[in-house]
Design brief:
Layout: H1 18-28, H2 33-40, H3 47-53, E1 65-73, E2 76-83, H4 89-99, E3 107-110, E4 114-122, H5 127-147, H6 150-154, E5 158-169, E6 172-182, H7 189-207, E7 210-217, E8 224-231, H8 239-254, H9 256-276, H10 281-292, E9 302-306, E10 312-319, H11 333-342, H12 347-371, H13 374-389, H14 396-407, H15 412-424
Antiparallel strand pairs: 1-2, 3-8, 4-6, 4-7, 5-6, 8-10, 9-10
Helix pairs in contact: 4-12, 5-7, 8-9, 8-12, 9-10, 9-12, 13-14, 13-15, 14-15
Bound molecules: nicotinamide-adenine-dinucleotide (NAD).
Residues 149, 151-152, 155, 157, 183-191, 193, 216, 218, 280, 283, 323, 325-327 line the site of nicotinamide-adenine-dinucleotide.
Length: 427
């Protein structure tokens, strides 16, 4: 049995010690001693590699790297790495994935991985003539763009189409050309920007205008992931619980103040996987929020409703500009390890997992908010953060957490009092 066919349903994973978890994962994902060493290295990125990645490097900064268990997506089990500093996210994702495992589990699909490159043309003397010149030259423009990236074309990607718009702006009418590029397993920003820059002189000739910007759009609405999951009503607390979740979703869908927090919950899951796999998470955030506002009204990225059996159905559709080649995906050793743990070979699969985790996370938040309130689940971890902030160390931490929870007031001043009294106690 290869690890790809092994179950991700690992009961009691959260109760294991760190060493036990590493040992389970070593067996499950067939990790090499070097990869286990990477997990223990405190971030996995050497100074030399970091120094090559960005400018003015002084050091590196680590995040907790954990895994969500229980995910079944399109009939296959996945253990999903997540890098995040916020407590409760990994636990909620794992718990909700358990509820979504029925049958094939979470079902996903994606469009082709098409990104949009924008070319901004100013001072166009005759808009209609310019548009028809570009229409006529479409084939040769696309061919020209593809000559720049034979590797991408060899993998079945490359420039596929050109769309033309004119827009009214504060500084006048502009001609905006969209180059649609299938980026296959790359996120695609470098590839698309290179193509747009190279086409600019020819666009100026064809339009008689002046090209200013040539840059990818992060509103990747041609590169969408669709995710769907069903949760049996009895697994989520019965009919009333289902109705409450749907009411909570309707609030988010109607009100941007609520939608921003609702969508932030989705991104808690999606971005944690993105960070573990060294994706451009700023691009993902920008794309998701712009897509949520595509109707002119900022709304929920997900939708929750009841099916004929009264079970809860969740649907999430979002742009997903991810890559497993290019960027830091190949240069960050932890990102390579993350892809290995998931056992994936395509950017499409990575994007679908990231959206699935987003949907699970969304349900986790909706369930907590409609049932017990978000703070109860967070209490223990919040208490732990407060006592550490107040100076607790080693064995003092658990002692102080217990005492703080006992007070019923999880506050920093209380944490300080408790930590001071523990520290002052004669040994
Ligand atoms: P890249 O140029 O490093 O890699 C992509 C290239 O890899 C392709 O052009 C292709 O030639 C080659 N390739 C090899 N195998 C491939 C395969 N199977 N599928 C597709 N291509 C394959 O990286 P990129 O993905 O073009 O750019 C991503 C980087 O750009 C990220 O680091 C991102 O942060 C950065 N970036 C983002 C923005 C933005 O989002 N607005 C802007 C500029 C740069």
């Amino acid at each position: 049995m290869t690890y790809k066919s092994k179950s991700s349903r690992i009961s009691g994973f959260y109760k294991m010690t760190l060493e036990e978890r590493v040992s389970v994962l070593t067996e499950r994902a067939e990790l090499t001693p070097e990869e286990v060493g990477l997990l223990r290295s405190g971030g996995g990125l050497g100074l030399e590699a970091a120094n090559r990645m960005i400018e003015n490097v002084l050091g590196t900064m680590a995040y907790p790297f954990g895994v969500a268990v229980n995910f079944r997506i399109n009939g296959r089990d996945y253990i999903v790495p997540m890098a995040i500093e916020e407590p409760s996210v990994v636990a909620a994702a794992s718990n909700m994935a358990r509820l979504m495992r029925e049958g094939e589990g979470i079902r996903t699909s994606s469009t082709d991985p098409v990104m949009i490159g924008q070319i901004q043309v100013l001072d166009v003397p005759d808009m209609e003539k310019a548009i028809s010149s570009i229409e006529d030259a479409k084939g040769s423009l696309i061919e020209g763009a593809n000559k720049l990236d034979p590797v991408l074309v060899r993998f079945g990607g490359g420039a596929k189409d050109i769309e033309i718009r004119s827009i009214e702006t504060e500084t006048g009418i502009m001609l905006i050309i969209h180059l649609l590029v299938d980026c296959r397993d790359a996120m695609g920003a470098n590839a698309v920007n290179t193509m747009c820059e190279a086409l600019a002189p020819r666009i100026e000739e064809l339009t008689g205008g002046r090209v200013l910007l040539r840059i990818i759009s992060n509103l990747a609405d041609r590169r969408l992931v669709h995710v769907e999951a069903i949760v049996k009503k009895d697994d989520i607390g019965g009919e009333d619980a289902v109705d409450a979740i749907i009411d909570a979703w309707a609030f988010a869908d109607a009100d941007p103040y609520r939608a921003s927090t609702h969508n932030k919950g989705i991104m808690n899951g999606t971005i944690a996987v993105a960070l573990a796999a060294a994706q451009d998470h700023r691009a993902l955030e920008a794309g998701a929020h712009a897509y949520a506002a595509r109707t002119g009204h900022y709304r929920s990225l997900s939708r929750w409703y009841k099916n004929g059996e009264g079970d809860l159905v969740g649907v999430l559709e979002m742009p997903m500009a991810v890559g497993i080649v290019g960027g830091a995906t190949k240069t960050h050793p932890m990102a390579r390890l993350a892809l290995k743990i998931m056992g994936i070979n395509t950017a499409k699969e990575l994007g679908e997992i990231m959206a699935a985790v987003g949907l699970a996370q969304n349900l986790g938040a909706l369930r907590a908010l409609t049932q017990e309130g978000i703070q109860r689940g967070h209490m223990r971890l919040h208490a732990r953060n407060l006592v550490v902030m107040a100076g607790a160390e080693g064995e003092q931490i658990e002692k102080a957490v217990e005492a703080l929870i006992q007070t019923g007031a999880i506050r920093f001043d209380k944490a300080q009092e408790i930590v001071h009294s523990i520290k002052d106690k004669p040994k």
